[in-house]
Structure formats: C-alpha cells, structure tokens
Amino acid sequence: MSWIYLVAAGLLEVVWAYFMKQSEGFTRLVPTSITIVAMIASFALLALAMRNLPLSTAYTVWTGIGAVGAFLVGTFILGEPVNAMRVTAALLITAGLVLMKLS
C-alpha cells in the first residue's frame, strides 16, 4: 500500500506544479486553490508512504515522479522545448527511480 501512496503523492506533485504555473504567481483563484489542495494531499500521501518506506527511497521516488511528470506535462501540454539533452535527463531520472525501487 505504501507504494500506491507514494505514486499517488508523486502524481499529485505534478498536478500542483502544473496548476502553480497556471496560477500566474498565485493571482488566479481556481488554479491557486487546486495547487494548495494538491500540495496538501501530496504531502499527506508522502507521509503515509514514509511510515513503511525509507526516507531515501520515498523522497527520491516522490521527487523523481514529480520531475519527470513535470517534464512530460511541460512538453506535451505546455509546448515547452524538447531536445536530446532534456530527454536524456528525464530518462536518467527514470532509470534512477527504477534502481531505487529495486534496491
């Protein structure tokens, strides 16, 4: 169950990052509200996951899901630039997540 909490927390990190961008510096009410709620839920699920998972694993996987997810959202939804180095970086982060899970 801890891994399910952790993956959900990581996905919510992507949600709050996206809506933080949409909030335009917390000047728009709805995206700001979604950001805050998603942040709280993400941290709560991370805390639940950390009951049974080591800090080093839980935090690394949480931030990794957020980083790769934000890269994908930025690329496919926000139309941010993509180049070989950025894709390689995302793949290396993903490889690190897999290795952390296996360790």
Automatic annotation (TrEMBL):
GO terms for biological process: xenobiotic detoxification by transmembrane export across the plasma membrane. GO terms for cellular component: plasma membrane. It comes from the Bacteria. It is found in: Cell membrane. SUPFAM superfamilies: Multidrug resistance efflux transporter EmrE (SSF103481). The keyword Ubl conjugation does not apply. It is a multi-pass membrane protein. Keywords: Cell membrane, Membrane, Transmembrane, Transmembrane helix, Transport. GO terms for molecular function: transmembrane transporter activity. The chain crosses the membrane at residues 33-50, 57-78, 84-102. InterPro entries: EmrE-like, Small_drug/metabolite_transptr, Small_multidrug_res. Belongs to the drug/metabolite transporter (DMT) superfamily. Small multidrug resistance (SMR) (TC 2.A.7.1) family. Gdx/SugE subfamily. This is Guanidinium exporter. It comes from Dyadobacter psychrophilus. The lineage of its organism: Bacteria, Pseudomonadati, Bacteroidota, Cytophagia, Cytophagales.
